[in-house]
Design goal:
- The protein is an all-alpha fold and 158 residues long.
- The model is unreliable at 15-30 and 148-158 (pLDDT under 50).
- The longest helix has 37 residues, at 49-85.
- It is elongated, with a radius of gyration of 18 Å.
- The two termini are 32 Å apart.
- The chain has five helices and no strands.
Length: 158
């Protein structure tokens, strides 16, 4: 099934805006907002109980994989920091940077695929509403934060 261009652009924007936060978010940081559990969000989307359950299953299944990827990334970044502090050889640093960036890409890829799977649960009409809700949420985030940078701790609809 092909998604409309506008929806694909919104998903791409969502992924790009969230990717740095995902990659740098420590495992003990704030949890992503479970929009599929929010009553106002479910109501505006017309989200059926079975859809919310399916989306939650995608989240729960992917969450474990993401947690491991974030833990791996954190360990690799710690090692890189140590190598920088001890003034390691540039070739050693380059190899470690490659490992860090590969781990970061793996975490971002997993998260992106999770978001796409979640969107596939929605009907075309719900995807259109989701796009509208997402645009409104982004607008609200820019209004709340100085400089227009979205605040990852704010929740849609609040």
């Amino acid at each position: 099934m092909m998604f409309p261009l506008r929806l694909r652009l919104v998903v791409a924007a969502l992924l790009l805006s969230a990717a740095p936060a995902l990659a740098q978010r420590p495992p003990e940081g704030p949890r992503p907002f479970p929009w599929w559990k929010s009553e106002p969000f479910k109501k505006e989307l017309g989200l059926a109980a079975d859809q919310a359950t399916r989306i939650d299953k995608i989240w729960e299944t992917t969450r474990l994989e993401l947690r491991q990827e974030w833990d791996d990334l954190s360990k690799l970044e710690s090692k890189l920091s140590h190598l920088i502090q001890v003034d390691a050889d540039e070739a050693v640093l380059t190899r470690q940077i490659d490992r860090v960036e590969t781990a970061r890409a793996a975490a971002n890829k997993t998260r992106s695929l999770m978001l796409v799977q979640m969107l596939k649960v929605l009907t075309p009409e719900q995807r259109t509403r989701f796009t509208t809700l997402h645009d409104k949420w982004q607008h609200d985030q820019r209004a709340v934060r100085p400089g227009g940078a979205p605040d990852a701790t704010r929740r849609p609809g609040r």
